[in-house]
Amino acid sequence: MRVTNGMMVNNLLRNLNRNLSKMEKTQQSLSTGKKFANPSDDPIGVSRSLRLNTEVSTMEQYKRNADDVNSWLTTTEMAISNITDILSRAKELTVQAVTETNSIDERNSIGEEIKELRNQLVQIGNTTYAGSYIFSGYKTDKPLLSQDGRYDVGGGTNEITLDEVIEVNIGVGDRIGENIVGQRIFGLYISGADLDKTAADSLKQQPEINSGDSSQLIAVFDKLISDLSSDDTNGISSALSRIEGHADNVNAIRAEIGVKTNRIELTTNRIQDDTLNLKDLLSKNEDADIAEVITNLKMEEYVYKASLSGGAKIIQPTLVDFLS
């Protein structure tokens, strides 16, 4: 086979380009810190990175969901804590008012404070988190209570909607209800039926107050205000058991929120651990060993320079060299 100068030059250029391309890839790996930049560099590694990145993004979304639920529950717990304080103060005032030595003027004064506590309950019932009413079930754009103490969700309701629990994904197959339906806290009078299947028995067994579509808790305060203004000591006395029943119910719900908060904390810790593990696997899959990359780059630079040096000797002769 006859080897021509053109063949030698073409082979030289092809090998030089191959060596230069290898050196360019190694330099790119050094500058980016990654083993591969294109799918063709390592198809299996790229596929694994895509899957790991998807899992990391999913875990980060679960973390955001858990944080949002935790904030919602914190707002709810604060609202229920305020209700507990109001019921405690109402009980204290009722015990004071039921004393026979109190005059009608003193009971009227107590009644004024009870009115303020009652109005505060309505405000708490319409507590919002990030623009959403936390006690209104699915209807987070509507307040739970009107100023007269009636349920205002969807124009008023006479049914207990305990199933309107907003569930949020905080893990694979792991969902948690972030809201407490307002009727569980404020109650509703329904003749012949339980006030709330999950409420304390003391709340179910207390003397009935026909509140129509009003909150049962608000109705207790309205009845107490009426008894105070009419100086009805028997009515004032019966309010004590009703207030205590609602206080027991609210405390039970508050404990439930504490359980959920603890669960969210444990879930958040698990998500953080899983995310760190996934990021570690991702780093091992795609991050380059800098020491190895630098060593390879130096070797490839040496090979490339050797190729240039060898090529210079191969194509060195010219026509001038043969003219003498």
Structure notes:
The protein is mainly α and 324 residues long. The chain has a domain at 55-280: f41 fragment of flagellin, N-terminal domain, CATH 1.20.1330. Helix content is 64%, strand content 4%. It has eight helices and four strands, in the order αααββββααααα. It has helices spanning 5-32, 43-97, 104-125, 182-186, 201-205, 216-229, 233-286, 290-314, and strands spanning 128-129, 132-133, 167-171, 174-177. It has a two-stranded antiparallel sheet with strand order 1-2. It has a two-stranded antiparallel ribbon with strand order 3-4. A hairpin with a 2-residue loop joins β1 and β2. The longest helix has 55 residues, at 43-97. It is rod-shaped, with a radius of gyration of 38 Å. 27% of the residues are buried.
Rough shape? rod-shaped
Helix content: 55-70%
Low-confidence stretches: 189-208
Note the total helix count: 8
The CATH class of the domain at 55-280: Mainly Alpha
In total, the number of strands is 4
Radius of gyration: 38 Å
Named at the architecture level, the CATH assignment of the domain at 55-280 is Up-down Bundle
CATH topology of the domain at 55-280: f41 fragment of flagellin, N-terminal domain
Write down the secondary-structure element order: HHHEEEEHHHHH
Average predicted local confidence, pLDDT: 81
> Terminal Cα separation, in Å?
31 Å
- Judged by helices, strands and strand pairing, the structural class is mainly alpha
- Strand order of the main beta sheet, please? 1-2
Largest sheet: 2 strands, antiparallel
Beta-strand proportion: under 5%
* The named CATH superfamily of the domain at 55-280: f41 fragment of flagellin, N-terminal domain
